[in-house]
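Model it.
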Amino acid sequence: MAQYTLTGTFGTSFENSDTVLLSVNSGTISPTSTTKGALAAGLNVQIDDGVTVTAVANSGACSSVIAQVVAGTAAPTPPASAAGSYDCNTRTWATASWNSGTGAVTLTPSANTTIHSYSPTNISANSGEVFIEYTFSNSEAGWDNTDAQIAVTDPVACYMPSIDTGATLDTFGPLQANFNVADGVTGATIVVGTDATVSQGTLVSVSPSVYGNNLNTYVGTITPPASGYSNSGGANITDSDDAIGSSTTPTGSFSGSFSGFTPGDAGEYAVNVTSNVAWSLALKGSDTTHFTLDVVSGNPGTSVVTMSYDGSNNWDINSNVSVILKSTTPLAILASTTVDYTN
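Modeled.
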């Protein structure tokens, strides 16, 4: 183990008495807790070289604010002459820390090292492990390339400090939103939250906002949830769904009258019944007992209805016998036709 001095930089909301817990990703650290005042002044800790130290505020107004730093390795002493050239792997040239509250990244150089630039300087939480690219130089006189600037961009070829920001989040999209538009009434306004719904996020609007006739496509504008997704708090998304608009006014008709009967001769006669809603038929008149219908109800569309006459001579041809077509819901008379005879 080696001794390092940890120094923390704090915002004005911290108090000197606030407790800070210390941990490492491997091995042990001593001490395991301290205060804001001690850490701000510089705290000596015992840890292994190269471990990641995590500091978590455990009390006060800024409880749960996290920062991380990677311990370096002891800097070699360059020989008095002909030390050769340094490169990205000669030693640990910089360590990185991250403020999970603000997202700010800080890159701290080792002794006699200058950081000329680094990226990124700010990282959002739940971005996974992020490597920090940087350019540095070292001013120690023993190097053949003293003050040469080296760009560190490849974590495979070079040691690069990294920040673990937590597991990456899914992107909120149509699959998560599950936008749905129920079938409705042609011309009626599509009510957000009732006719049009989403499983997650907030449905802002639907376009078009009125049901068209028959099958149409509708587009919903949806705000992602406030948290839990990589695009939470970001731009709205869109999704589409198909729905059917149908007429509210029941209509119905007969293709003609039941007029093919000869008094005294049993027979049948058929006509078409057409309606845009579920329907039923009823016989009306004083001599209806002589007639029967093979179909007395149906669904929207056109149906063939056949009437049978029993051939009775008791049919009074001067009496009025009619067939009434009614809608089921709402209950209404849509049309009527007569039962007539031929000479």
